[in-house]
Design a protein that fits this description.
The protein is mainly alpha-helical. The chain has helices at residues 26-32, 51-59, 67-75, 85-90, 98-133, 182-190, 197-202, 216-225, 242-246, 253-268, 272-288, and strands at residues 37-40, 63-66, 139-145, 151-157, 207-209, 238-240. It contains 11 helices and 6 strands. It is elongated and about 75 Å long.
Length: 293
């Protein structure tokens, strides 16, 4: 990082030693500091872009980026607070074509079938262990919000007491949640409880990779409070996803916002290569037992 150039009338606090020049000498300052990239980040939404000076830099061979694109490139997530609807319309991304959907569906079916066959002995042992460990059904069924905000029934191995939400209603799981059974703690850490979701993948309700499906009780509230939250339902929810490997388990509205940054990044930059990279990273996450609650 070379330093800041503040525009006249811009707010914010910048240490004097980080200010490297003024707007009138933008090109000269960039050349002197051997700058290869300029990031335009106005602190005031009403700020006027200094088009003439920035254009001179662009024609001089210096790359110019807006803050939102730079943030996406560096962090692998989107700066939701600084995005307006026109950015979604004109940005380079969100190109999940019919052909890409067919290829993604093919990959989902193959992975889900192979996964179910390989996991069958483990699933039978897990079902037996659940029956021995605590009273209640082996499978846990819960309504989640899927693609196009359509509800579907998600399947998991039961990891909590049968009456887990009888007194509280719909709540997020917490660290060291007392509702989780002894066996459930191990299953949630190792992600064994997620295996039955492969059935949802085969049924076409979920994808192997995508945003995690949320409960309708939470979706309504989060949609009202978080900008663009409903955009995550543009694709099918996934057994694993970009947010799952980049951010720990979320249990609050603040966590939901942070995970949305990753979910929208995934939707914007979708490719089969990205899916395969996420699947490979998921195996590493499962191996070290990170993120479960």
């Amino acid at each position: 990082f070379a330093g800041f150039i503040r525009l006249e009338g811009e707010g914010g606090t910048v240490a004097a030693e980080r200010l490297v020049g003024d707007l009138g000498t933008l090109v000269e300052t960039a050349r002197r500091l051997r700058v290869s990239k300029i990031v335009v980040a106005l602190t005031e939404r009403r700020g006027v872009l200094p088009v003439r000076e920035v254009l001179r830099c662009r024609l001089a061979g210096i790359r110019v980026m807006d803050a939102v694109s730079f943030y996406e490139q560096v962090t692998g997530k989107l700066m939701i607070e600084n995005i307006n609807p026109s950015w979604f319309i004109f940005s380079d991304g969100f190109r999940l074509t019919p052909a890409m959907r067919v290829a993604k569906r093919g990959l989902d079916v193959v992975l889900a079938l192979v996964g179910l066959v390989l996991a069958l002995p483990l699933m039978l042992l897990t079902a037996l262990a659940i029956k021995i460990d605590s009273p209640g059904p082996v499978l846990f069924r819960q309504v989640r919000t899927g693609e196009g905000e359509r509800p579907f029934t998600l399947y998991k191995f039961r990891s909590m007491r049968q009456d887990a939400e009888q007194a509280t209603g719909a709540v997020w799981a917490q660290t060291n949640d007392p509702r989780v059974t002894r066996l459930g703690r191990f299953m949630r850490k190792s992600r064994i409880d997620e295996i039955p979701q492969l059935i949802n993948v085969i049924k076409g309700e979920m994808s192997f990779v995508g945003p995690r499906p949320e409960r309708p009780e939470f979706v309504g509230r989060l949609t009202q409070k978080i900008p663009y939250y409903s955009n995550r339902h543009y694709v099918k929810p996934g057994v694993t996803g970009w947010a799952q490997i980049r951010y720990p388990y979320g249990a609050s509205e603040e966590d939901a916002l942070e995970k949305l940054r990753y979910d929208l990044y995934y939707t914007k930059n979708y490719s089969l290569g990205l899916d395969l990279a996420i699947i490979a990273s998921t195996f590493r996450v499962v191996l070290f037992g990170r993120g479960g609650r």
